[in-house]
């Protein structure tokens, strides 16, 4: 096997493949990255059984020139380091006896051992099923806005992931840790009868957000037991979490006694002044005393002191004062997911807070208040 290829493109795709590998896997072949070289294409594959990745490199996207074909199983972290140390645009990879790989350019050469490619499992990528075309930037934004409410350590396995539900020509992206809820609605140009309801692990979401950076074409495929994403030259597949995800819409409050309108950046800056959790490791509880023209914010900062600020930069329909407490970390993360003027909608001091963007309710953040005993 021998081929020439753009070093940066190869390095980028090998790095994506390497990120999902479990280097503690009992089967040593699963710690490797499979390169399958055909006359016109190099296919890169990796898996950890839960996540699988595949990328296609060719003359158009990677300046590929194949001299001879073959299949090899790389030791990922060593190959990555070798490619980083080379400094020319085009590199050559050569494997003659299937036990050693040579990586070289015009004046540098590395040699490294290989794993046994014949023992690598045959992966079944599910590229057919319920197929949904998505806008990559909008979908990635939805993931980043809702991932904050996932509790990766929750004892209820279904709550350790992100739920994707399609109905009424819309994709609902939902997460909850039972203390807060994040939900983003994405309108879809699909048949009204199309439906699905699947939940993927937290690590799937984290890796998917990385892979989506810069992607131009995206398709989501829902099949039995799997969720697959087709992105430009890549395929990314995840197993699903078994179980029924809670219907979080039932928790959303509908009738409100107080609504505030506030600029996201201004309010976030004020809340951040009370956030010294990095110093103590503990997220403080913030007390909001909301009046018609003033909000008094107070927080006891463990082992540091206390915080108090009078905040005036908001509009309110308040007729009576309201006092309510929140976990400051939850409130800041919810506010940070928006980027414009906000509406904070209150029912009462013991009821959930609903946060939306003015004139756009596609993103909803719900936070339960925190009870403080006297």
From TrEMBL:
Keyword Nucleotide-binding: no
InterPro entries given in the database record: DNA_clamp_sf (IPR046938), DNA_polIII_beta (IPR001001), DNA_polIII_beta_C (IPR022635), DNA_polIII_beta_cen (IPR022637), DNA_polIII_beta_N (IPR022634)
A Pfam family it matches: DNA_pol3_beta_2
GO MF annotation list: 3'-5' exonuclease activity; DNA binding; DNA-directed DNA polymerase activity
Any Gene Ontology CC annotation: cytoplasm
Record's keyword terms, sorted: Cytoplasm, DNA replication, DNA-binding, DNA-directed DNA polymerase, Nucleotidyltransferase, Transferase
GO BP, sorted A to Z: DNA strand elongation involved in DNA replication
Location within or outside the cell: Cytoplasm
The protein's role, per its UniProt record: Confers DNA tethering and processivity to DNA polymerases and other proteins. Acts as a clamp, forming a ring around DNA (a reaction catalyzed by the clamp-loading complex) which diffuses in an ATP-independent manner freely and bidirectionally along dsDNA. Initially characterized for its ability to contact the catalytic subunit of DNA polymerase III (Pol III), a complex, multichain enzyme responsible for most of the replicative synthesis in bacteria; Pol III exhibits 3'-5' exonuclease proofreading activity.
Family in the record: Belongs to the beta sliding clamp family.
Subunit structure: Forms a ring-shaped head-to-tail homodimer around DNA which binds and tethers DNA polymerases and other proteins to the DNA. The DNA replisome complex has a single clamp-loading complex (3 tau and 1 each of delta, delta', psi and chi subunits) which binds 3 Pol III cores (1 core on the leading strand and 2 on the lagging strand) each with a beta sliding clamp dimer. Additional proteins in the replisome are other copies of gamma, psi and chi, Ssb, DNA helicase and RNA primase.
NCBIfam families noted in UniProt: dnan
Protein name per the record: Beta sliding clamp
Natural source organism: Entomoplasma freundtii
Lineage, uppermost ranks: Bacteria, Bacillati, Mycoplasmatota, Mollicutes, Entomoplasmatales
Gene this chain is encoded by: dnaN
């Amino acid at each position: 096997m021998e081929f020439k290829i753009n070093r940066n493109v190869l390095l980028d795709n090998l790095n994506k493949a390497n990120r999902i590998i479990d280097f503690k896997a009992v089967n040593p072949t699963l710690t490797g990255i499979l390169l399958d070289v055909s006359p016109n294409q190099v296919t890169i594959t990796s898996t950890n059984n839960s996540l699988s990745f595949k990328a296609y490199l060719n003359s158009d996207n990677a300046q590929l020139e194949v001299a001879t074909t073959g299949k090899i199983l790389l030791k990922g972290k060593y190959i990555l380091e070798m490619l980083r140390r080379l400094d020319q645009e085009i590199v050559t990879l050569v494997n003659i006896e299937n036990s050693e790989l040579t990586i070289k350019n015009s004046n540098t050469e590395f040699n490294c051992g290989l794993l046994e490619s014949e023992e690598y499992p045959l992966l079944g990528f599910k590229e057919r099923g319920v197929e949904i075309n998505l806008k990559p930037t909008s979908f990635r934004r939805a993931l980043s806005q809702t991932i904050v409410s996932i509790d990766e350590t929750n004892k209820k396995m279904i709550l350790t992931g992100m739920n994707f539900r399609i109905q009424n020509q819309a994709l609902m992206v939902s997460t909850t840790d039972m203390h807060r809820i994040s939900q983003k609605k994405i309108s879809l140009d699909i048949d009204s009868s199309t439906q699905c309801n699947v939940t993927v692990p937290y690590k799937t979401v984290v890796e998917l957000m990385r892979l989506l950076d810069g992607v131009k074409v995206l398709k989501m495929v829902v099949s039995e037991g799997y969720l697959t994403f087709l992105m430009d030259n890549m395929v990314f597949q995840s197993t699903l979490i078994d179980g029924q995800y809670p219907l979080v819409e039932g928790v959303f409050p509908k009738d409100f006694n107080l609504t505030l309108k506030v600029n996201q950046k201004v309010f976030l800056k004020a809340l951040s002044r009370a956030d010294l959790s990095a110093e103590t490791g503990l997220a403080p509880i913030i007390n909001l005393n909301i009046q018609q023209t003033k909000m008094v914010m107070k927080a006891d900062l463990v082992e540091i002191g206390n915080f108090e600020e009078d905040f005036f930069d908001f509009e309110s329909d308040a007729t009576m004062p309201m006092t309510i407490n929140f976990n400051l970390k939850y409130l800041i993360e919810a506010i940070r997911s928006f980027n414009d003027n906000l509406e904070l909608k209150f029912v009462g001091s013991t009821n959930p807070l609903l946060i939306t963007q003015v004139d756009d309710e596609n993103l909803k953040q719900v936070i339960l208040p925190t009870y403080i005993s006297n």
